[in-house]
Write a structure and sequence with these properties.
The complex is a heterodimer of chains A (about 280) and B (about 240).
Chain A lengths: L1 H18 L9 E7 H5 L2 H13 L2 E7 L1 H9 L5 E4 L2 H9 L3 E17 L12 H11 L3 E3 L5 H12 L12 E3 L4 H11 L2 E5 H6 L6 E5 L6 E9 L9 H12 L1 H8 L2 E2 L2 E2 L2 E2 L11
Parallel strand pairs in A: 1-2, 1-3, 5-6, 5-7
Antiparallel strand pairs in A: 3-9, 4-7, 4-8, 4-9, 4-12, 10-11
Helix pairs in contact in A: 10-11
Chain B lengths: L2 H15 L2 H34 L5 H11 L4 H12 L14 H38 L3 H11 L1 H17 L2 H7 L9 H10 L3 H34 L1
The chains are: A alpha/beta (about 280), B mainly alpha (about 240).
């Protein structure tokens, strides 16, 4: 009796498993390890259908922090990296995990904070004094704290300003350890300042009482780069399809697809590929 | 909260529009969690029954560990399965990372201990009643386990539901091993996490309401099946 019950259950389970989408490559696809900021901004929903239409290659995006994306790619769990932490990206290539790094597009970081601006950040000139104003006022600041591209940038900005907020972690300096949108939710909830990329901010729907309180310093430049994961390190990397995606991103078709993603008429990302390796898109 | 009324209308609109993207996510959620629950039941229920009828040294410790495993943190299970199925991991060559199959594996590990522990509890009570009868009939242990599993089937259906509830509600494990890839591994819970991170709180709450409705529907379906099964058994 038991064996009948058990085999019936097993058969049902196996049936369920076999009905799941096959892992075999019945349709060509690549996995792109990327950042929460690009996904939360909605960029992929805009450009990926255009690429898939042109080439028949499906793009599967895993959106995590840049630190985790680099680590996942190092484990061979992706074909392409599209992230925004240039020094870490260059190290990834130098260590042999990636083939070559190309500039794709940029936008900028901004500091958002409560409208009434308790730390008077709006009155400051330069990102250093802006951060110092927050620190001196011990106004709440929500940091990503997750080794993402935005977090790496924020840490570098504090350092350049000669400030070290890490000792205040848990008091006014709050490390959320989560993605860009989740951190903005925290900032909106507690009336905190936060560093965010402009694209995520513009598309973010839960702004609450927050607005941009500081922008425009050249140090807030935010460059995105694309890298092919090295097929010599991970033989299963789909180098042909992945290279086709990179070539397309850097081509005129890809660059204009990025430029055409706008909100209220202004672009969220500015394409700036300079590669000479550009081949016509397929 | 200001989100609540708009979340209800958001949920309602999603449902009446039968949004194909939503349908896809709901179906994948059900497919992954039902498959995982069935496999976990096939493994966990006999294991629980075996422990229930067996007497061996260290039995108390085994039961204590099994009970503790009911509270296994999903994110730890997700991380463990990620390390296994990552292309650099032991099961890497199978190319399971970021597939629904990897999500099923994670949920099986999450749910099987729960089902085994609760089955053990259910069967042990029943075994005390049946023990004398089994001795008279001189049943082998495996025959006894079969009889107990069969006679406890209505209670075990509830055990399976508890397992399904844990599977369909968790986000930590499927997010890590599935990657929340649109049209491939995005399920209800990871979609809710994504909408929350976009600040689309009404949409996220709307999806949450639908998820709860699905759980209620599955529970009701099993409840009806149980009731009619009992009636049949009584005749």
């Amino acid at each position: 009796m038991k064996s009948i019950l058990r085999s019936a259950l097993l058969a049902t389970a196996l049936l369920g498993l076999s009905a799941l989408p096959a892992t075999a490559e019945d349709k060509p696809f690549i996995i792109v390890q990327s950042t929460t900021s690009t996904q939360n901004s909605g960029l992929y929903d805009h450009i990926l259908p255009i690429f898939t239409e042109a080439t028949g290659i499906e793009v599967r995006v895993v959106a995590v922090g840049t630190g985790q994306a680099l680590k996942n790619a190092q484990n061979g769990d992706g074909d392409v990296l599209l992230v925004h932490a240039k020094p870490a990206e260059e190290k990834f290539v130098a260590d042999g995990w990636g083939v070559e790094r190309f500039d794709v597009m940029y936008n900028d970081f901004v500091i958002v904070g409560p409208k009434d601006d308790p730390a008077k950040v709006k009155e400051t000139v330069g990102i250093g004094p802006a951060l110092a104003a927050i620190m001196n006022a011990t106004a709440p600041f929500a940091s990503r704290g997750d080794d993402s591209g935005t977090h790496k940038k924020e840490v570098a900005l504090w350092k350049t300003a000669g400030l070290d907020p890490s000792g205040a972690s848990g008091t006014w300096y709050r490390e959320t350890g989560s993605g860009m949108g989740a951190t903005l939710n925290v900032a909106a909830g507690m009336g905190a300042y936060a560093l965010t990329d402009r694209a995520t901010w513009l598309k973010f729907a839960n702004k609450g009482d927050l607005e941009i309180v500081y922008e425009g310093d050249p140090a807030l430049f935010n460059q995105y780069g694309v890298i092919l994961v090295n097929p010599e390190r991970h033989s299963h990397v789909k180098a042909v399809e992945a290279q086709a995606f990179i070539d397309w991103l850097l081509s005129e078709a890809g660059q204009s697809a990025i430029a055409s993603y706008t909100r209220n008429g202004s672009p969220l990302f500015t394409p700036n590929a300079t590669s000479t390796r550009i081949k016509p898109a397929g | 909260m200001a989100e609540s009324p708009s979340a209800l209308s958001e949920a309602f609109q999603l449902l009446i529009s039968a949004d194909p993207a939503l349908t896809e996510i709901v179906l994948l959620s059900l497919q992954v969690s039902l498959t995982a629950t069935l496999i976990a039941f096939a493994l966990g229920a006999p294991l629980g029954a075996l422990i229930a009828v067996s007497r061996f040294p260290g039995r108390g410790a085994v039961i204590a560990v099994l009970n503790a495993l009911m509270g296994l943190p999903p994110v730890v299970v997700g991380l463990t399965v990620y390390i296994l199925v990552s292309n650099a991991g032991a099961l890497g060559p199978l190319r399971l990372i970021y597939t629904p199959t990897a999500m099923v594996i994670a949920q099986v590990l999450l749910v099987a201990p729960l089902i085994a522990a609760l089955s053990r509890l259910t069967i042990e009570d029943m075994h005390e009643e049946y023990d004398e009868l089994f001795r008279t009939l001189r049943l082998t242990r495996f025959a006894a386990i079969g009889t107990l599993l069969w006679d406890a089937r209505f209670s075990l259906a509830t055990v399976a539901l508890a397992g399904f509830g844990r599977a369909i509600a968790e986000v930590g494990a499927v997010l890590i091993v599935g990657g929340n890839i649109a049209h491939v591994t995005r399920v209800m819970t990871t979609a809710i996490a994504l909408e929350t991170s976009k600040g689309e709180l009404s949409m996220a709450l709307g999806l949450g309401i639908i998820l709860i409705a699905i759980s209620v529907a599955v529970n009701a379906a099993v409840g009806v099946a149980r009731a009619s099964g009992r009636r049949m058994a009584a005749i």
